[in-house]
Specification:
mainly alpha, 10 helices, elongated
């Protein structure tokens, strides 16, 4: 009789390991805080197809909201201690792109950056024109002008009121936070200064009973300490006043510099367009000259052939 074949049993993996082998998780983009965490948003693919073309008002408002939340996020991150779970070096505009993507604005980080720069430039032009309108009542309001009139005055032709108000809120809030952070480090140096000056009257109090001269000295020291206290307060207020005035001057200089930069860019653009227009005109003139020369040559050849034929016929 033949011996039964000895076959080794096939190892069976436990169901947990089988599930680990079957399921593979694709990579995903990090979602922005405050964005809806649905299954569709969680299963977004790695490759994104970005929308091209002009921005709609809804997309622009989503971008402005994203920038506002990004500023809040960065301020909290600078004031709060470092969280080890957060990823260091997260790109600023990548966070804005993820927020816009989760809210229906399918734009890339480069598109968001370029659009934000254009929005800031248009906002500054409209704000400066509004200040001119307030000082000079003869000028028409920007919001009452037609697109052609806005172009003639070198103003953005399609700035919406909702977009301008949203930008104004974000920029005013950013300026307020910057000024508050600049003023906070100055306050501790002003308030504690009078504290050691108040110790002198307490040290001179026991010596006031025997002679009246000591009481006079204590009174004079008290007046000196009060004068020093007032002097320190005035110095602190002067420092704050100088700081605020320097901030205003730097802001005005920065605004003028940006305005001059934009004007120079527009001048260069106009000069390039004029040179291109002149080049086209020169090329058209050359083409006309060549065309006229060919016509004259054809006419001369025709006249020559007719003269030859007449000579042959005469003979």
């Amino acid at each position: 009789m033949s011996e039964p074949a000895t076959t080794s049993p096939v190892p069976i993996c436990p169901p947990e390991r089988q599930n680990q082998r079957v399921h593979r998780h694709p990579e995903h983009f990090p979602t922005a805080p405050g964005a809806p965490t649905t299954s569709n948003a969680a299963s977004s693919p790695l490759v994104r197809e970005y929308r091209k073309g002009n921005w709609t008002i809804q997309e622009t408002l989503i971008l402005i909201t994203a920038k506002k939340l990004d500023e809040d996020r960065r301020i909290k991150a600078s004031s709060a201690p470092m969280d080890p779970t957060t990823t260091k070096g997260e790109l600023r505009w990548k966070w804005v792109e993820n927020y816009c993507w989760n809210h229906g604005c399918l734009r890339s980080s480069n598109q968001c950056n370029d659009k934000w720069d254009n929005l800031l430039r248009d906002y500054k032009k409209v704000r400066e024109y509004d200040s001119k309108v307030q000082s000079n009542g003869d000028l028409p309001s920007y919001w009452n002008m037609e697109k052609q009139d806005r172009k003639l005055r070198n103003l953005p032709s399609n700035m919406a009121m909702d977009v301008f108000q949203a930008l104004n809120e974000v920029l005013q809030r950013k300026y307020a936070t910057q000024t508050s952070t600049l003023r906070d480090p100055q306050t501790p140096s002003v308030s504690p200064s009078p504290a050691p000056l108040s110790v002198r009257p307490l040290l001179l109090a026991p010596a006031s009973s025997p002679p009246p001269v000591a009481s006079e000295k204590s009174d004079s020291s008290g007046t000196e300490s009060s004068e020093k206290h007032e002097g320190s307060d005035t110095k602190g207020s002067r420092k704050l006043g100088k700081l605020s005035s320097s901030i205003k001057r730097s802001a005005s200089v920065l605004a003028k510099t940006l305005q001059n930069c934009e004007e120079n860019k527009e001048k260069r653009h106009r000069q390039v367009m004029e040179v291109e227009q002149r080049r086209l005109e020169i090329e058209e003139a050359q083409n006309d000259v060549n065309r006229q020369g060919m016509l004259n040559l054809v006419a001369a050849v025709a006249n020559l052939s007719s003269a030859i034929q007449s000579l042959i016929s005469d003979r």
